[in-house]
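Priority: medium. Attachment 1 of 2:
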């Protein structure tokens, strides 16, 4: 059952609008399963299970709605990123900020920038050299999950929860 859920999660992750699937190794692995599941529509319970799997992805920091401060449970991931960089201090940390599709694109672009800048400031405060951190921000243009069956007007709570995986910063050490 866990393997089946992973295949479904991978299929939907591979179906999204990423412009650079090479940014994260988990994204490269997800596209391999895309062709195993076609024409499949997730029920609400299944969709929520898939979202719960995506929340656990290492190197991805998640946020609450309209916030640029990471969720409390995400600080451990940032600690891990710092420890990995500290063992390889000549490497570059790439931080990509993203938002969900709620709000205007202008607002979302600003919010995604604030998320990436906040992560950069956290890393700087831990001793990472500014030259070793590069940031990008994309607003809502690169979602990991597109909740086609739900809308803000008809299924507000479910829609906001499903969109949560799009409120993120992806961090990669190069």
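Attachment 2 of 2:
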């Amino acid at each position: 059952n866990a393997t089946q859920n992973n295949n479904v999660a991978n299929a939907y992750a591979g179906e999204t609008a990423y412009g650079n699937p090479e940014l994260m190794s988990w994204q490269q692995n997800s596209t391999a399963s895309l062709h195993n599941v076609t024409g499949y529509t997730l029920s609400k319970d299944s969709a929520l299970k898939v979202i719960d799997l995506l929340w656990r992805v290492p190197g991805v920091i998640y946020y609450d709605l309209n916030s640029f401060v990471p969720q409390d449970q995400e600080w451990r991931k940032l600690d891990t990123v710092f420890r990995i960089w500290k063992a390889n201090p000549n490497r570059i940390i790439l931080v990509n900020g993203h938002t969900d599709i709620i709000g205007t694109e202008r607002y979302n672009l600003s919010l995604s920038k604030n998320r990436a800048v906040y992560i950069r400031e956290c890393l700087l405060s831990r001793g990472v050299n500014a030259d070793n951190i590069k940031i990008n921000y994309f607003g809502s243009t690169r979602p990991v999950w597109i909740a086609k069956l739900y809308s803000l007007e008809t299924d507000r709570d479910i829609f906001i929860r499903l969109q949560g995986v799009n409120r993120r910063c992806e961090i990669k050490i190069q």
